[in-house]
Write a structure and sequence with these properties.
This protein is of the alpha+beta class. Helix content is 29%, strand content 30%. The strands form eight sheets. A seven-stranded mixed β-sheet has the order 3-12-13-19-16-15-14, with helices on both faces.
Length: 453
């Protein structure tokens, strides 16, 4: 069967990710660990750029948000109070024929008869809840008292530390606590590359407020989060806001939006923005017996704050960036013949490498040493890459394929051999337009920093 253009595109993206060192399957040499991924040298830079920019706009550029970094291993009482031990599950069905374990919504129903999507078998178990949390044992004893969980979301440690952070930060409502970190879910069917993983990272903000502010802040955060995606180069027409209907929303939420993205495998959730009322803090207050109330100096009232939560996935954002950036166009090779060029059109702010520096020829020492001097000159400002091997066109192409927005070439004019006026100038090439301009070396940091920050 012919693959759809979207499926072919996804295959090319996955293959590029491996070939160029963005994302590898975890434990690949042992056959792979399902639902787990390792980020290579370029992937880790891209991921860091996403997280750093999120932290910059959500924490550093605001007076009303502080950060925290909580433990991954979580006390079972925390997750009992939050409802995860009891209710964080997917209904699951086993196929007795091929032994596949399926999410109930993946079972095919034909003329009222349930069928396994894997083997077509009809001998299926009834749906049973399957808890998605990873349970582990702490300490030497192996009994009930030693159970701990790998956190299924970063949010709970924020709620549990609410009182401490309120006291040390001396913030007044409304204010938020932000966290970026790993979360773990034993997904029944990890799929679509990194989209549904068992180990992933979240970027979560719990924004505490007065009850009467909740609905307005839900709108506010939805808009802020859409701006974030646009500012990292995700096109607005690929983003969609879904209002989660009453029947799909958590019972305690008064309003939830899903921010969705058009991936090659379909429209899928990137982030949830939820007004969770006072549910989480009230649950922890009840279960711990410790007051999590806020005292309002002005009204002299004591109450449990409400919360609006924008919760985004790092890995899904990285995947959306790669999928959106992947493109193919035509460019001339060294002999002027047109060939297909693969380009990752990352926003310069997100690109793993910001600028590549090339000496025109590798066997001309003055060109090489000048290029290396420029690398050292730019390094304090950005991630730079030096490349001297192969024809210059090939070197450009290698950088286009990993999304490097700028290329600097050191040639004989830089050395002042052709025209003294051009001494200490270089060509600066822009990835998307492939246009080149001649700029003085001393101006490079200013020009580049203004285009990448
Ligand atoms: N604290 C709320 C919460 O965790 P969620 O909708 O379950 O809400 C938030 O998760 C975000 O975390 C999702 O929008 C998604 O970006 C990311 N996420 C959730 N499960 C994931 C998985 N299995 N793989 C990758 N990312 C995931």
């Amino acid at each position: 069967m012919n693959k759809s253009p979207d499926a072919q595109r996804m295959e090319k993206i996955v293959s590029l990710c491996k070939r160029r060192g963005f994302i590898f399957q975890s434990s690949e040499i042992y056959g792979g660990l399902s639902g787990c991924w390792d980020y290579g040298p370029l992937g880790v830079e891209l991921k860091r750029n996403v997280k750093n920019y999120w932290w910059r706009v959500m924490v550093h550029e605001r007076d009303d948000v502080v950060g925290m970094d909580g433990a991954i291993l979580t006390h079972p009482e925390v997750l009992k109070a939050s409802g995860h031990v009891e209710g964080f599950s997917d209904p699951m069905v086993d196929c007795r024929t091929c032994k596949a374990r399926l999410r109930a919504d993946q079972v095919i129903e034909k003329k009222g008869i349930r069928q396994c999507p894997n083997c077509g078998g009809r001998d299926l178990t009834e749906a049973r809840p399957f808890n998605l949390m990873f349970q582990t044992q702490m300490g030497a004893a192996a009994d009930e008292s030693s159970i701990a969980y790998l956190r299924p979301e970063t949010a709970q440690s924020i709620f549990v530390q609410f009182k401490n952070i309120l006291e040390v930060s001396r913030k007044k409502l409304p204010f938020g606590i932000a966290q970026i970190g790993k979360a773990f879910r034993n997904e029944i069917n990890p799929r679509n590359f990194t989209f549904r993983s068992r180990e992933f990272e979240q970027m979560e903000l719990e924004y505490f407020c007065r009850p009467e502010e909740g609905m307005e802040l839900l709108e506010y955060w939805k808009e802020e989060r859409l701006k974030f995606y646009e500012n990292i180069g995700i096109s607005r027409d690929r983003l969609h806001v879904k209002t989660v209907p009453d029947e799909e929303r958590a019972f305690y939420s008064k309003g939830t939006y899903d921010i969705e993205y058009d991936f090659p495998f379909g429209r899928q959730e990137l982030e949830g923005v939820a007004y969770r009322t006072d549910y989480d803090l009230s649950q922890h207050q009840k279960a711990s017996g410790k007051s999590l109330e806020y005292f309002d100096e002005e009204t002299k009232q004591r109450f449990v704050p409400h919360v609006v939560e924008p919760s985004a996935g790092v890995d899904r954002t990285v995947l959306a960036l790669i999928c959106g950036a992947y493109s193919e166009d035509e460019a001339p090779d060294e002999k002027g013949k047109m060939e297909t060029r693969i380009v990752l059109r990352f926003h310069p702010r997100m690109a793993p490498i910001k600028c590549a520096v090339f000496p025109l020829l590798k066997n001309k020492e003055p060109l090489v040493s000048k290029a290396q001097e420029i690398v050292n000159f730019l390094r304090p400002h950005m991630n730079v890459f030096y490349d001297e091997s192969g024809a210059i066109g090939r070197r450009y192409r290698r950088q286009d394929e990993i999304g490097t927005p700028f290329g600097v070439t050191v040639d004989f004019e830089t050395l002042g051999e052709k025209d003294a006026a051009l001494r200490d100038t270089v060509t600066l090439r822009e990835r998307d337009s492939m246009k080149q301009e001649r700029v003085p070396v001393k101006d490079l940091p200013g020009i580049l920093v203004s285009r990448i920050s």
